[in-house]
Write a structure and sequence with these properties.
Length: 71
């Protein structure tokens, strides 16, 4: 499973992503305009992964980084 967390500053309620036929994952999320959102993927409930094509990466509070999308 792949989940996305952090959107709208919500790190507790994951958005479960759907697997497409080509093997990629997708989801639909409503986000406010003119803001940047930090997020991270959680794979199989154990591995945190950043988006390699994100607009930016910002430091998190755990010594790592979060992906950033700028809307």
């Amino acid at each position: 499973t792949v989940e996305i967390l952090g959107l709208n500053s919500d790190w507790k309620n994951a958005v479960v992503m759907s697997k497409k036929k080509d093997g990629s994952f997708t989801c639909d999320v409503s986000l406010p305009k003119n803001i940047q959102q930090e997020f991270k993927y959680l794979v199989n409930q154990t591995e945190w992964i950043n988006e390699p094509e994100a607009d930016a990466q910002l430091p998190d509070n755990f010594g790592g980084t979060n992906s950033v999308i700028i809307l």
